[in-house]
């Protein structure tokens, strides 16, 4: 039975297959959900407040570290300093020789410049001649004094002799008068004794005058000797001055250093006091102008590290020598006048002197070159 039944699936004509209805994507047709705003947009005030607080904390932390923990103080307002001075001629004349050149290093005693010395040598010879003349005058006055002493001695001896003769004549006159009174003598003898007495009195007066004249001659000779001694001192002073002027014709270095801006040239006429060069001594230091607020812990002998702007590969080491007792403006040519109604407080700069342990020998370092010193004002933790 089952085999004789027709197969309906085989005899049924083909029908078009019904397609299943398409599925609708609800996600595409559904409206989009609203996007949630970010935290920054939802809380802008608190975000801004947090940023401000964080920045304030960072700034406060930096200041605390800088003030209480940072052990250094530095400034770029610093330079190499030295007591430079002008080399000038003491006397005038023509330049005979200039054995140095610009930027040359010289030692103490080295010749910088020579002036033609002929005129000054002549002046020295003349002064020495005046010294010899004064010495001769002294010798002559000394001889006159000795002669005056001899004349005084002779006059005094003659005075003594006249005095003795006068005494004898006085005694003889008295004796003749006694003889006349007794009738044993004659009037002629009395007259003769009286005349002798008068002659001896006159002779004694003359001898006393000779002694006085000899003493006056001695005083004149002594005065001449004093004048000659004064002339000798004057001549010696002139000779010493001439010798100094002769020495001034050679200008030498009194300390080691460098010759800078040399203007003297051979054959040039220079006047007394005219500058011929600038001398920079080897002794240089650093003048650092720190703010007054940086000096709280700065003391002498604190270590310093120095960097030279021209030679940044050279790091120098030194120490603080001293701190100027006052700001830089207080010692300037025109100090500030703060007694005004529109006063504005400005942090002042105070010069600090720094000594370098050893300057580099392979580079040229001079006054005015910029440096950056860093002072260790507190021990490193």
From TrEMBL:
A biological process from GO: transmembrane transport
Database matches in SUPFAM superfamilies: HlyD-like secretion proteins
InterPro entries: Beta-barrel_RND_2, MdtA-like_BSH, MFP
Segments of skewed composition (Basic and acidic residues): 9-36
Annotated CusB-like beta-barrel domain residues: 283-326
Coiled coil: 124-174, 204-252
Multidrug resistance protein MdtA-like barrel-sandwich hybrid domain span: 85-277
Transmembrane helix keyword on record: yes
Keyword check for Coiled coil: yes
Chain ranges passing through the membrane: 45-65
Pfam families: Beta-barrel_RND_2, BSH_RND
Alphabetical UniProt keywords: Coiled coil, Membrane, Transmembrane, Transmembrane helix
Chain spans, region Disordered: 1-36
Domain of life: Bacteria
Protein name (database record): Biotin/lipoyl-binding protein
């Amino acid at each position: 039975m089952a085999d004789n039944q027709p197969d309906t699936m085989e005899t049924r004509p083909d029908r078009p297959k019904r397609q299943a209805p398409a599925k609708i994507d609800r996600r595409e047709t559904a409206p989009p959900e609203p996007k949630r705003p970010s935290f920054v947009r939802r809380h802008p005030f608190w975000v801004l407040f947090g940023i401000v607080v964080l920045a304030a904390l960072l700034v406060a932390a930096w200041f605390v570290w800088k003030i209480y923990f940072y052990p250094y103080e530095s400034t770029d307002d610093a330079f190499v300093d030295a007591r430079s001075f002008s080399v000038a001629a003491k006397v005038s004349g023509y330049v005979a020789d200039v054995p140095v050149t610009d930027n040359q290093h010289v030692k103490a005693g080295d010749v910088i410049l020579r002036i033609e010395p002929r005129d000054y040598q002549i002046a020295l010879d003349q002064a020495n001649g005046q010294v010899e003349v004064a010495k001769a005058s002294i010798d002559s006055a000394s001889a006159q004094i000795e002669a005056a002493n001899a004349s005084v001695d002779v006059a005094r001896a003659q005075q003594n002799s006249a005095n003795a003769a006068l005494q004898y004549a006085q005694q003889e006159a008295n004796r003749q008068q006694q003889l006349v009174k007794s009738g044993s003598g004659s009037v002629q003898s009395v007259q003769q004794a009286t005349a002798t007495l008068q002659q001896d009195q006159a002779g004694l007066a003359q001898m006393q005058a000779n002694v006085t004249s000899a003493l006056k001659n001695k005083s004149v000779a002594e005065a001449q000797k004093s004048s000659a001694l004064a002339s000798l001192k004057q001549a010696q002073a002139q000779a010493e001055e001439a010798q100094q002027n002769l020495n001034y014709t050679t200008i030498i270095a009194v300390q080691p250093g460098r010759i800078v801006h040399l203007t003297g040239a051979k054959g040039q006429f220079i006047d007394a006091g005219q500058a011929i060069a600038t001398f920079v001594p080897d002794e240089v230091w650093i003048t650092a102008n720190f703010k007054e607020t940086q000096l709280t812990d700065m003391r002498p002998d604190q270590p310093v590290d120095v960097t030279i702007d021209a030679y940044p590969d050279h790091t120098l080491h030194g120490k603080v020598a001293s701190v100027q007792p006052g700001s830089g403006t207080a010692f300037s040519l025109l100090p500030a006048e703060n007694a005004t109604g529109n006063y504005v407080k400005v942090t002042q700069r105070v010069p600090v002197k720094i000594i370098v342990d050893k300057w580099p020998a392979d580079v040229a370092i001079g006054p005015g070159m910029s440096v950056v010193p860093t002072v260790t004002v507190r021990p490193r933790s």
